[in-house]
Amino acid sequence: MSNTDALYQEIILEHNRKPRNFREMPDANRTIEGRNPLCGDSLTLWLKLTDDAISDISFKGQGCAISKASASLMTAAVKGKTRAEAEEIFERFHRLVTGKMPEAEHAAMGSLRALGGVSKFPLRVKCASLAWHALHSALDSASADVSTEREGPEAPPGEGA
Length: 161
Ligand code: ZN
Fold this sequence. Notes:
Layout: H1 3-17, E1 30-36, E2 41-50, E3 53-62, H2 65-78, H3 83-97, H4 103-106, H5 122-142
Antiparallel strand pairs: 1-2, 2-3
The structure holds zinc ion.
Zinc ion is lined by residues 36, 39, 41, 63-64, 66-67, 127.
């Protein structure tokens, strides 16, 4: 095993042992269940969307070390991000774990690089992607009514800003 592989494995084991944002969130405004029957992984993802940003995110669940570590890394990566930023991270992560990302782009992925090794194992790709697909669904379903929980005049859309 190379030093890099050992480092990546250590990141995964550490996140599995002490997952970040591993708690229920009673005041979440989005809750999504995710399941990967091929491995037996399951999780619940909670999101608090404020305006267009993920102001809080948490998860609980059980499954293999890859699924849990990936969920932990995902929550840490997208917390505080806007929906557009989170979708972009989702898209890059997807390319990473499916082996479609050029090596030169891996460095920009930070700790998420630790999961790049699953691209060689199709069953593991499902484990690593579980929490991310839940995130994707949560953001999708939020597009219609996230602003209805706010009162007062709407801020103008910030596109192009
Ligand atoms: Zn799994």
